[in-house]
Amino acid sequence: MLESFIISFRLKNTYMANSIIYSIKGLPVLNKILPNRLYKSGGLKVFANIVSILWEIVNTFLGKFLYVLLMLFLMTTLYDTNQADTFLHIFTFLTLIGAISNTYMFNPTKDKYYAIILMNMDAGKYAISNYAYSMLKVVVGFLPFTILFGLGIDVPLWLCILMPFFVVAVKICAIFYDIWKYKRTGIVTNENSLDKLRWALIALLLALAYGLPVVHVTLTRTIFAILLAACLLFGIYSLTQILAFKDYKKLYKKLLTPDNVYMVKKATSTETVKKNIAKSIEYDGSFTSNKEGFAYFHELFVKRHRKLLTKSAEKQSFFLIAVVALVLMIVHFVPESKEPLNYITLTFLPYFVFIMYMLNRGTTITQAMFMNCDHSMLTYRIYRTPQVLLGVFKERLKTMISINLMPASIIGLGLALILYATGGTDNPLNYLVLFISINAMSIFFSVHYLVMYYLLQPYTVSTELKSGTYKAAQLLTYLVCYVMIYLRLPTIQFGIATIVFCVAYTAISLVLVYRYAPKTFKIRL
């Protein structure tokens, strides 16, 4: 067992080291300077291995620290409830979500594929030894921070110590269920492709985690202790069944198919995307347009891709209407919820930057534009002239803004209604700023994704996403939006700043596209 783990760890470390070298070569400028023989460099290999090991250590502790701090400790300060009970309450439901979505054992990673399928390692020994290592990292990574933050809000020390073991026990129970299901049905759970039922359950648990404390309902320490004891006992039984299971080889052969292992890559750049987009095209000869020039060209594209471009936004809109209606019902039937909801509405506007980022469909729309239009049109020189590029850009921007404004306007109006229903505000300008700023965020992301597409055009002739700069810009956008979750600023100040920024960004982007897109908007080799 130990020998299998050592081999698998060295394999994973080598794969990560090569990935680090590949990432370095993918950076702008460096990709033209550094040769392919770099992979043979002994010194760089040592450096990459050191980075890989340091990343393993950082991943063990930093992720758990941020998780406990941001998802648990800071969230408990937002509710008018007992902090210790709220801490344990949120921790319990998030742990259940983690058991549904991430058990480690059923994640079809490349290192599992290389070891079990390509190198024919003993699947059982590989699975058990690597799972034991993953659970050890969970305990070691969580323990310092559950003690640190738990004791700070009067969670008993013994509960703080046992909280990481609760996570392990729940994950073991989830694995036992998945193995039991496999033995009965032959269906293998794929953590990278959860079914609708699991997503619905995750959404429900998330709502219970952060929604119940709003109405002053939380799990008590006694209830948590009972759940902990039950999970530990059933976890021990589940572990014996996991160790007794003999068909890991068959299970992993079903799980570790090339389609599953490389699904993330395909989902962003290969035949899967093209097939999915092709299915959404409506080949209707009756589609026509009364417009001329660029507007005519673009309107036909929009009509033929109506399912892809607008259906998702319409579904989002209906869902958001239901959410707003639900919140207004809670306000009506649970009067004590008015005060916290009013406070959230007046100070949590930065949080909605991340929500608007998640709702925006810029990446999907630009993928469709490239694969079903620009992939062919960029072969014509006239299509890359400043006048044509800016003309098409303006038409596309209008469409993206109108699509993304559907859910945005509902959120903006919904926030204004919630603010009014929860007691209102001394400054009526808050209503207007809430509505306009949410829509301004939506416009910003529409502009941002389209500008990135035109200035950093990341797709190759084979429609693969291949641009380190584009990926870095995407990551930076995500990080900035994520940080906004933890800002608490008055609605008027942040809202006005958002509106001004959106207007300035849009104006600058039009100039940049006109000046630089003729050089940058081209198919990558």
**Overall body shape:** globular
Alpha-beta content class: mainly alpha
Helix proportion: over 70%
Number of helices, counting only DSSP H or I runs of 4 residues or more: 22
Reported for the largest beta sheet, the result is:
none
Low-confidence stretches: 263-270
Order of helices and strands: HHHHHHHHHHHHHHHHHHHHHH
Which percent range describes the beta-strand content? under 5%
Average pLDDT, rounded to a whole number, is 80
Q: How would the blueprint of this fold be written?
A:
Blueprint lengths: L1 H24 L4 H4 L8 H35 L6 H19 L8 H9 L4 H30 L4 H29 L10 H16 L9 H24 L3 H8 L2 H4 L1 H7 L1 H9 L13 H12 L1 H28 L4 H10 L3 H9 L2 H16 L8 H36 L7 H28 L11 H17 L6 H30 L5
Helix pairs in contact: 1-3, 1-5, 1-6, 3-4, 3-6, 4-7, 4-8, 6-7, 7-9, 12-13, 13-18, 14-19, 15-19, 16-19, 17-20, 17-21, 19-20, 19-22, 20-22
